[in-house]
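#struct-pred

JT: dropping the chains for the assembly here, can someone run the whole complex?
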Amino acid sequence: MTKKQFENQLKQQAYAAVPDKFSDLMKTIAAEDGRGVSLSDNGDEPHLVPVVPAHSSNTVERWLALAACFVVVLVGVIIATTRDDTQLTKRPIGGNGTTTTAETPRGSSSSSFEQGGNRGLTTTVTAANQNGTTTLSASSGTQTANGSETPLQTGGTKQKGATAVTTRSTSKWWSDFGIDTTKGGNTTKFVPGGATTEKTEAPSAKPTTKRTTTPTTKGVCSHQITYKVPVMVGNGEIPSDLESCVQYGAPKDERTQHGEVEPTEPTASPAGPTTPTKQSGNVFWSDFSVEDPTQEGECTFYIVYEDVQDIASGTYGVFAGVKFTDGWKIMFHSVCEGGTVLYTNMRIITDKGICVEEQRYDPTTEILTITHRNEQGETLASYTKKIAKGSKAFAYMGVS
Amino acid sequence: MTTHDINNLIRALANDDTTALERLYTEMSKPVFFYALRICKNNEIAEDVMQETFLTAWDKANSFDAKNGRAWIFTIAKHKTMDKMRSGARQAALDETNVEETSSPLESALSDLAFWQMLSPLSDKERDVVSLRLLSGMALTEVAEELELPKGTVFWIYQNAIKKLRKKEGGERP
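RK: done, full complex below.
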């Protein structure tokens, strides 16, 4: 029996113990308000055919709401028509199609005037600032055929001007990981598609970041990253102070809560996972490297980690996470099942979509295979790595 | 049935569509029952909550404007359950003065449910996760929010719990 079958069996057994009381529910409804339900002749069984009363309470409520809306609108119109809006009545309004310029509290603005129809019953004034951005639109004024005016109403909508496009700076992005890109080296930049760029920053006390952006056959980009990231292993709970571990160079005493951790200098590595340089306690620092085709746009990290030492026993699970400024974005467990298939169809939710990952470990060959697919099942990337049983740890970091 | 489908069924209730009510009841009544049972640990209360939840949904469908109808239903059920438990506690306090022995009604009610015994190998937390995930049909994210646990932790607990249950049942290793 598969796991899914077992779950279904368990569910069905549980559901079988719950009585179906839908007819009781219908009786209650019929007895309480009868809305949509009527009892049979003997009064025992409710009909399930909708019987909508001519004036159900529902309908009455709707009419009342409509009437209330009408009253509100009426009051609004009365207030508006009796309001003395000197700002607009004093504005020089020319003939149809004319444009005038006036000084306003927000600076110079131009107004266009249009009269609707031969009898001139509706006028519209649109004001724009010097940049041509509409700032005020007023309408519903009336003008009689003989030219006398009634005040225009300021019922127009104020529209937002063009807003500057805010681009998330890469340095900000890195700082989410606790990387200070202001010291030493250059700030790396994402360049989706286009020419290949590569920048490496290696400040003495900072992690190495290396990013390569290249066009791929899928019309997307790939990135290669080598970065030292802390990963917690083992106890299945995320410590509240893990964030402090993310802060590279955080005081030692903050990190010792999860074991004595002494980050070591990362080494530039080719694409593909590498073993951690040092481990102590249940937190260790490891090098990550990956080359992964991604969807277009800015890329986001995710981390996959397995403790290879325990793969063979099939009883161990670990997790990894990355904390952004606005909370945990990526966080999941990897679960060893049966010692071979670690998991399949694990959906990793990232800022930019969902990636489905499968991990398989063959204890005989000691080969771990990681496959990433998009939701359409297309393989985005596949990696293999020989990892000896008893290896202390294995970590992998990808870009989605 | 997707959340979108559930939302449409709830909106249909506002138009007195009893067919929609029946479909909604078929889909959601048992998840609601187990949702309430997890909180109150009482079979009778859970049944009452199940019925009253749908009665309220029928009455309040006009005001439904939530994005997640399933969550809306569970919220109603939670309030109903809490109300029932509060009133039950008051009643128990009154009865205590008149009855010498009040054998734990909650436990006796639970013992009637064979499935609850099936979950006996599990810890309280594991039982909660299995109940919400499997029996109430909640997504991992919803379970995580309900129990105020990280999603990954919920996943991990659920996997372990199912593994335990399979072991007990003599099933295959997952």
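JT: nice. Chain A touches chain B through 46 residues (CB under 8 Å). The longest helix of chain A spans residues 57-81.
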